[in-house]
């Protein structure tokens, strides 16, 4: 845009200067001093009395004024670029030209930290609408159950941010990411996401390996994910697996678990309350690693034994459906997250007692769901698992742990 306006301005002023001289050399009457000196006085007087000459003279005066206005317009457009493309810096090349350069960290902050959207009941951003803003949701963490447009959403405008649409309430079920470049915002429904009941933010590592297009586009910077980034369509808390799962009655703190081929862990959904956080378990980690089941699982060099629901949340350490081969960094990341969940639960228990609402039965303060993903049917080592955490205090958050 800047180049086209500047080019037109340069051509206009150059043409005008070539015909009538440099405008800075013109006198108050608008005639070039050099031109006056070259014309005989009588001829100049005759020309000034000629209507054609006067018309041409007025046209030159208009061009001079137009050139000034174009210059002002060009400066305004340049200033507007910083508003339209706030995540761009100027890189000066050896030739002196400026080249737009994206500020990736600022762009990621815009995409992920405070997402907002307007959801529509019809495709192509039409029909009735409902607004979403990260900082005003019912749940701390950004999840919002839709009201007016529950099961009616067909398109969404994300205003340059990234959001996730969910099949069910509480941000569960199949989820679709919508962001600049996802080319699905004008028609969001598909075979898996046949309805939308809730909306939430994208994952914190949604664009870890993504590339970004030139910011000088009229539609702003666009995002292109790599194959190692979070897929647009995922199930964080899987309803499909939940419906297939069984409940182990002998372990009431685990609501459901599902095992797949080779007895690999597929899904865990745990109900957690404080009375279960200090239970000791009969078998140590070393004893579980020596069992034939764990030995039969596929492993990578350096893998350690991982627990889906770790002992610090009351998870069983002696059940095969709660263990899997895990890389050390993944186990450390998950233990850090579950330590935070435990602290939140203990804080919730204290607040309940202070409010005087404690009951005689166990108080369910958190639900944790894990969905394990495998490369194929024959694999027994997950390459990633998604976690979903819902606390009674209206906190709801989710993410993934790579393996």
Which tags fit this structure?
403 residues, Gamma-B Crystallin, domain 1, Extracellular Endonuclease, Chain A, five-stranded antiparallel β-sheet, 19 strands
Under the CATH scheme, which class of the largest domain?
Alpha Beta
Number of helices: 9
Number of domains: 3
Shape: elongated
Task: Give an account of the 3D structure.
With 403 residues, the protein is an alpha+beta fold. It has 3 domains: 2-84; 102-235, Gamma-B Crystallin, domain 1, CATH 2.60.20.10; 239-402, Extracellular Endonuclease, Chain A, CATH 3.40.570. It has 9 helices and 19 strands. Strand 1 and strand 2 (98-102) form a beta hairpin. The protein is elongated, with a radius of gyration of 33 Å. Residues 1-21 form the signal peptide. Keywords: Signal.
Task: List the topology elements.
Layout (H helix, E strand, L loop, with lengths): L1 H19 L12 H6 L2 H8 L2 H34 L3 E5 L5 E5 L1 H9 L3 E7 L3 E8 L10 E2 L9 E3 L5 E4 L7 E5 L19 E4 L9 E2 L10 E2 L8 E3 L3 H6 L9 E6 L5 E8 L12 H5 L2 H5 L7 E4 L15 E4 L1 H28 L10 E8 L10 E8 L3 E8 L1
Antiparallel strand pairs: 1-2, 3-4, 3-6, 5-9, 7-8, 7-9, 8-12, 10-11, 13-14, 14-17, 15-16, 17-18, 18-19
């Amino acid at each position: 845009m800047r180049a086209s306006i500047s080019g037109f301005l340069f051509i206009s002023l150059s043409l005008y200067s070539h015909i009538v001289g440099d405008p800075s050399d013109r006198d108050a009457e608008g005639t070039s001093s050099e031109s006056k000196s070259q014309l005989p006085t009588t001829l100049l007087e005759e020309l000034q009395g000629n209507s054609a000459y006067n018309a041409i003279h007025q046209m030159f005066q208009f061009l001079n004024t137009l050139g000034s206005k174009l210059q002002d317009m060009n400066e305004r457009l340049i200033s507007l670029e910083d508003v339209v493309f706030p995540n761009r810096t100027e890189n000066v090349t050896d030739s002196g030209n400026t080249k737009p350069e994206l500020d990736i960290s600022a762009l990621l902050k815009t995409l992920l930290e405070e997402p907002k959207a307007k959801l529509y009941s019809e495709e192509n951003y039409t029909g009735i609408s409902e607004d979403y803003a990260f900082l005003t949701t019912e749940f701390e963490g950004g999840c919002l159950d839709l009201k007016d447009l529950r099961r009616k959403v067909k398109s969404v405008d994300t205003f340059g941010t990234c959001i996730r649409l969910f099949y069910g309430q509480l941000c569960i079920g199949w989820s679709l990411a919508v962001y600049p470049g996802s080319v699905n915002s004008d028609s969001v429904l598909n075979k898996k996401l046949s309805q939308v009941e809730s909306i939430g933010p994208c994952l914190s590592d949604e664009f870890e390996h993504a590339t970004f297009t030139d910011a000088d586009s009229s539609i702003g910077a666009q995002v292109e994910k790599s194959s190692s980034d979070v897929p647009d369509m995922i199930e964080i808390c899987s309803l499909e697996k939940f419906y297939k799962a069984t409940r182990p009655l002998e372990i009431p703190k685990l609501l459901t678990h599902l095992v797949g081929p080779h007895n690999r862990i597929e899904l865990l959904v745990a109900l957690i309350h404080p009375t279960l956080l200090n239970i000791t378990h009969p078998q140590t980690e070393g004893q579980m690693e020596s069992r034939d089941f764990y030995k039969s699982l596929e492993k990578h060099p350096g893998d350690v034994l991982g627990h889906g629901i770790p002992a610090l949340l009351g998870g069983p350490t002696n059940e095969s459906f709660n263990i899997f081969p895990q890389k050390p960094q993944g186990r450390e990341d998950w233990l850090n997250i579950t330590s935070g969940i435990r602290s939140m639960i203990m804080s919730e228990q204290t607040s309940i007692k202070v409010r005087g609402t404690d009951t005689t039965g166990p108080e369910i303060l958190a639900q944790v769901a894990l969905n394990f993903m495998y490369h194929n049917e024959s694999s027994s080592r997950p390459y990633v698992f998604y976690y979903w955490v819902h606390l009674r205090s209206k906190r709801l958050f989710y993410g993934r742990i790579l393996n």
